[in-house]
Write a structure and sequence with these properties.
With 172 residues, the chain is α/β, with parallel strands linked by helices. It has 3 helices and 9 strands; from the N terminus they run H-E-E-E-H-E-E-E-E-H-E-E.
């Protein structure tokens, strides 16, 4: 075998070995499992499920059973982005008085590796939604409904500095 053929063979063997090692690492069952609390939110009038893994606010991280990750605040743009403008950080509408579930403006469609939604991001900047008169509260199930209630003066929306990593996951 000449030197050129030997080099090609060695390169091929090295490549195949590297691919096999990477595949073995990614498919290796460890037997370890971890459970995260499954939460429900609204997206476009439909229930979606998510898990909270990281929160930039320590008290909220403790409450959610998530990692405290103050560096997530670095994702906040210098100027708050307007609704519906897509960046890596999305708005999430939370209700600090617990009236209802959070409202997400995007979700992977469908969930999982076959998603075709290019606007989805699991990184969220929390916007607190408070009813002006709690007696008039009703369920808001989409970003449009939240913004409409704001335009009508029914709610106040306040941007917080809390950033959360909450991936939307397939329904159980």
């Amino acid at each position: 075998m000449d030197k050129m053929s030997l080099r090609k063979l060695l390169s091929y063997v090295s490549l195949v070995s590297a691919v096999m090692m990477l595949t073995a690492c990614s498919n290796q069952p460890t037997g370890l499992q971890y459970s995260l609390p499954l939460q429900q939110a609204w997206f476009e009038g439909e229930t979606v499920f998510y898990v909270t893994t990281d929160v930039s606010d320590q008290a909220m991280a403790e409450k959610m059973g998530a990692n405290y990750a103050p560096r997530l605040r670095d994702a906040i743009p210098n100027y708050p982005k307007p609704p519906r403008q897509k960046t890596v950080i999305e708005r999430v509408y939370g209700f600090p008085n617990g009236e209802q579930r959070n409202v997400f403006p995007s979700a992977p469609t469908p969930t999982g590796f076959q998603s075709t939604d290019t606007a989805y991001s699991p990184i969220w900047l929390m916007y607190a939604v408070k009813w002006v008169d709690p007696k008039n509260a009703y369920e808001l199930t989409s970003e449009d409904a939240v913004l409409d209630a704001d335009a009508k003066g029914l709610v106040n929306i306040e941007r917080t500095n809390i950033v959360v990593n909450c991936p939307v996951v397939p329904a159980p």
